[in-house]
Design goal:
Layout (H helix, E strand, L loop, with lengths): L14 E4 L9 H14 L6 H5 L6 H9 L8 H19 L11 H11 L2 E5 L5 H7 L8 E3 L12 H10 L6 E5 L2 H9 L4 E4 L10 E3 L7 H8 L10
Parallel strand pairs: 1-2, 1-4, 2-3, 4-5, 5-6
């Protein structure tokens, strides 16, 4: 573990960038059901194992993974139609989201960070980020939102996190990312940002710290990660 550095007393000089899906809220079941409906209509095998490969990647990249099992070949135009059809199914399912779907610990951590002066942002590959934030009641909570509508390259490319840092006006090394997908953890590392890996990404060798979820992460945890001295076990 690296020796501890110093973090300025003014926490407004620092930021926490949250991935959305799997960190703030889980729409995994909505994604799975939408992709499964599409796959069944197209007679393409699809199961939970394939679905796990879709975590943290863009819609079109997810479609390409699903089409690996397809008995037919699709043109680029046909692929676009498939992606839009899946997104329509997904957006229908998102209508059932509510503030009660915010994952444990998320609101508490966001509130604590804002009280300490931290800037908070969303860095998500999802183009449905606006509707999700609206449905769960967090549309106006974040200082900056960068999502799939703002980027040309999805994770593990660092573009989404670099744009968030740029909009925040905070250097990447002063931004902590919280991610639940390995592709997102890699993107944060490539952006030069310390990252806390949660959920499925917990234990990633690229992470400064791992936790099962946000319930064990506090503002002080973020400060320790920024200073280069997370908890002694590097796992919460």
């Amino acid at each position: 573990m690296s020796s501890c550095g110093r973090v300025n007393a003014n926490c407004s000089d620092y930021a926490v960038i949250f991935d959305l899906d799997g960190v703030i809220v889980s729409t995994d079941d909505c994604h799975y059901r939408a992709w499964k409906r599409l796959a069944d209509e197209e007679c393409i095998p699809f199961d939970a194992e394939i679905n796990n490969r879709l975590r943290g990647v863009s819609r079109m990249e997810s479609l390409e993974i699903i089409l690996e099992k397809s008995p037919r070949v699709y043109s680029d135009d046909q692929k676009q139609v498939l992606a839009e059809r899946k997104n329509g199914y997904y957006r229908e399912l998102l209508q059932s989201l509510s503030p009660s779907d915010v994952l444990p610990g998320a609101l508490e951590l966001i509130t604590a960070l804002k009280e300490r002066g931290f800037r908070v942002a969303i860095g998500s590959s999802s183009r449905n980020c606006p509707i999700i934030l609206e449905r769960i009641g967090l549309k106006s909570v974040f200082d900056v939102v960068v999502d799939g509508n703002c980027i040309s390259r999805s994770k593990p490319d660092p573009e989404v996190f670099m744009k968030a840092a740029e909009k925040l006006g905070i250097p990447p090394k002063r931004c902590v990312v919280i991610e639940d997908a390995e592709a997102g953890v890699e993107a944060a590392a490539r952006a030069g940002m310390p990252v806390i890996a949660v959920g499925a990404a917990a234990g990633s060798p690229l992470a400064a710290l791992s936790a099962q979820d946000l319930t064990t992460i506090t503002a002080d945890t973020i400060i320790r990660v920024l200073a280069g001295c997370p908890d002694s076990a590097d796992t919460l």
